[in-house]
Amino acid sequence: MDGHDSPQTPKGSLRKFLEQLSGAGKAIGVLTSGGDAQGMNAAVRAVVRMGIYVGAKVYFIYEGYQGMVDGGSNIVEADWESVSSILQVGGTIIGSARCQDFRTREGRLKAACNLVQLGITSLCVIGGDGSLTGAHIFQTEWSGLLEELARDGKISTEQAQKHGHLNVVGMVGSIDNDFCGTDMTIGTDSALHRIIEVVDAIMTTAQSHQRTFVLEVMGRHCGYLALVSALACGADWVFLPESPPEEGWQENMCIKLSENRARKKRLNIIIVAEGAIDTQNKPITSEQIKELVVTQLGYDTRVTILGHVQRGGTPSAFDRILASRMGVEAVVALLQATPETPACVVSLSGNQAVRLPLMECVQMTQEVQKAMDERRFKDAVRLRGRSFENNLNTYKRLAIKLPDSEIPKSNCNVGVVNVGAPAAGMNAAVRAAVRVGISEGHKMFAVYDGFEGFAKGQIKEIGWGDVGGWTGQGGSILGTKRTLPGKYLEDIAAQMRTHGISALLIIGGFEAYLGLLELLAARQKHEEFCVPMVMVPATVSNNVPGSDFSIGADTALNTITDTCDRIKQSASGTKRRVFIIETMGGFCGYLANMGGLAAGADAAYIFEEPFDIRDLQSNVEHLTEKMKTSIQRGLVLRNESCSENYTTDFIYQLYSEEGKGVFDCRKNVLGHMQQGGAPSPFDRNFGTKISARAMQWISSKLRESVGKGKKFLSEDSVCVLGISKRTLLFQPVAELKKETDFEHRIPKEQWWLKLRPLMKILAKYKVSFEVSDASQLEPVQPRGPEEPAAI
Fold first, then answer.
1. In the Cβ-directed half-sphere of 323, how many Cα atoms lie within 13 Å?
2. Cα 707 to Cα 701: distance, rounded to the nearest angstrom
3. SS3 content of the chain, % helix, strand, coil (to 5)
4. Given the DSSP bridges, would you call strands 533-537 and 718-724 parallel, antiparallel or unpaired?
5. Is 197 helix (H, G, I), strand (E, B) or coil?
6. Residue 783 has what pLDDT?
7. Mean pLDDT score, 32-40
8. Could you tell me the strand order of the sheet in which 633-639 lies?
9. Which percentage of the chain shows pLDDT scores above 90?
10. Is there a smaller number of Cβ atoms within 10 Å at the N or the C end of the chain?
């Protein structure tokens, strides 16, 4: 393989890494099976390239298990270029089919024979629970199948002995997210993108005509898509297979819809999973619901069935990164496997790649179905996992307002303020905070235009109905400013006194974090600041200490990825062209690095990994080599502040000069389009859930002090709420100070830097890669006391 050592990698560590993980003499078969899902191609690409990278042979198995049974031209060795340009394509390029033959022992005998002839003893299966169960059966029967084949003279005894065991690693590709043990399956996020695009479009027409829309989404046995899209668009009602509506739901739903209309809401959205049932396990159909609304309320009602649109289209940035991480992890797992290793699934828990025992996950997934069949719906929801349960509780809380008479008043006023630059998803966070606050009995106050508006007294009480329809709005409706509170402390304290503000929720980026530190420091002077204060990170740069993710970064990443897709297409047309694209992020390289991974870039220059002229030189040589292959285009990302002197113009000029006669160069600065646009499903959902959680924290702090009239003086009453690895954590800002590089406005340690080598390997650079500890398979769903951070 050509390509140079990435200059950042000492030769020794690379050698050691490749020795540890040598694929020499191994043959890996990769297949996609069952229903297709966006992101499967990204997974196939990662398996092929990582396999080749470590010296293994990788074979495409076309048309799923059918191709394995039929053999011949269905099993073909793949090379580096066979998976070029597929990252942005939905579906699966190697095809998928439902296969009856493989369910019989005869079929599996043929399949085993075909694999042994090519020496394939490692399988990577990308599919749903059916496909993975098939792989498990195949693995357990393998030695028996080979004995039989040897007896019948189909293979030699040497072959049978040499290939005596099969290793299987699965990745779950399914848009339903119906597999237990994994937080997100490949394709789920993209399916949500399709659903939300449709809902946003339907809302404008429904608004015009005061219509009610019944939307049917996929999910025969799993309500995940229905639930999350209902949460992300603020639907009036949702029907799920796991949590059927109580007896008498017909009347309750109609009351709810008419109440919403009475609050001046011009439309109703009802979301139905295709497998929706009532408590007697009878199906509830979209048509039934429509009939009900028309006859009971006389509203103009339309049904839209989304169908296969949800499976189609280009994979989202999240799915591409997820699938690329899983694909590489799957190859590592296969190389580390021994004859005793049971079949495993690679999946995501919070933000970490984990390996789980395949059959335990499958059994648990089947348990959910069993619970639903036996009408044990509480168990079904519990078995789906804590993130599903959290989503359901959050949805109920935000969708249904209790009558004022039933909400016990707390006599507390809570302020909500946006600080910093706008980020998509901020409004979803404000909506969730306001509604949770009201449901906990507080009065909610909106502060307009950041700390500056705070000082000027731009503060208004905000009600339940005022935040209706906010989840899908980009930017910041409250208005946001980068100004810090430092110079307005007197005025802000006075406003807090005037409005009797007893807690503060700040939604914003690095300025919000600095602002919190300033308010904390001002407590001695101004007792008004001795109240609980919590910050929810919202910035496209994803540079807030105390959280792995921030609201708005996913939307920006999708904008970057979409633009890169278009640019790559243009470059493919002109041939031999390299694009240099500048992304935002201040000194934080998150957008450039993850955008590079999602768009299949050749290099991404970031501040966190210093580079010099030799690196630039090596990248130019690498691209020159690439132009000799059939992939005649290049894509290079550069973070806006990665280097003072190696500016985008400098790199453009250097590449243009060095590439003369081989390739030409274009540059593109993406700019503020990265801050705009409608929030992605991830950001709506993340914003909603994390902000609701922050409000609950505020309420519990306020409840502690009831009747004591106590001032909050301790540092743990000023926190950042964030996701760290797998958990939701409240961390005092005072403690986060030591983890912060204030000069460059970034955390000192950033988790995503571990994914740097991934991008380089997939772009054919030789680097070493930190490998997870092989031997441990995790138990499925450990239930610890900490909060799960699944989105």
1. 42
2. 13
3. 45, 15, 35
4. parallel
5. helix
6. 44
7. 95
8. 603-605, 633-639, 577-583, 664-669
9. 82
10. N
Instruction: Return the DSSP state at 536.
Output: E
For the annotated binding site for Mg(2+), the residues are 129
Tokens matching residue 193? 């993108």
Binding positions: 35, 98-99, 128-131, 174-176, 211, 218-220, 274, 302, 308-311, 482, 539-543, 577, 584-586, 640, 666, 672-675, 745
Burial of 12: CB neighbours in 10 Å, binned 0-12, 13-18, 19+ = exposed
> Strand 344-349 vs strand 352-357: parallel, antiparallel, or unpaired?
antiparallel
Q: What is the pLDDT of residues 207-263, one digit of tens each?
A: 889 999 999 999 989 999 999 999 999 999 999 999 999 999 999 999 999 998 988
Q: pLDDT band for position 400 (50/70/90)?
A: confident
- Strands 664-669 and 577-583 come out as parallel
Name the token pair of 396: 């109920």
Q: What is the pLDDT of residues 608-630, one digit of tens each?
A: 999 999 999 999 999 999 999 88
Read off the amino acid at residue 510: F
Annotated active-site residue in 176, 189, 236, 449: 176
Residues near 774 by beta carbon (within 8 Å), at least 6 away in sequence = 332, 333, 336
Residue type, position 636, single letter: V
Indicate if 176 belongs to the active site.
yes
DSSP 481: B
Average pLDDT, the chain: 92
Residues 693-709: tens digit of each pLDDT: 999 999 999 998 876 66
Provide the pLDDT for residue 84.
93
| Residue at 719: amino acid letter | C
How many whole angstroms separate alpha carbon 370 and alpha carbon 611? 56
- 356: closest CA among 374, 373, 368, 344? 344
* Mean pLDDT along residues 588-602: 96
Locate all alpha helices (DSSP H) within 641-783, ordered by sequence. 648-658, 681-704, 733-736, 756-762
Q: Average pLDDT of 11-27?
A: 74
pLDDT at res. 516: 97
Task: Assess contact for 765 and 327: CB atoms under 8 A.
Answer: no
For 230, phi then psi, to 5°, come to: -65, -40
Does the pLDDT of residue 782 top 70, yes or no?
no
Cα end-to-end distance, the chain, whole Å: 39
334 has a pLDDT exceeding 60: yes
What is the reported pTM?
0.94
Q: What is the mean pLDDT of residues 170-184?
A: 91
What is the spatial distance between Cα 387 and Cα 685, in angstroms, rounded to a whole number? Answer: 11
Beta carbons of 442 and 699 less than 8 angstroms apart: yes
**Token pair of 82 as six digits:** 């066979």
The residue assigned the tokens 């993980």 is: 21
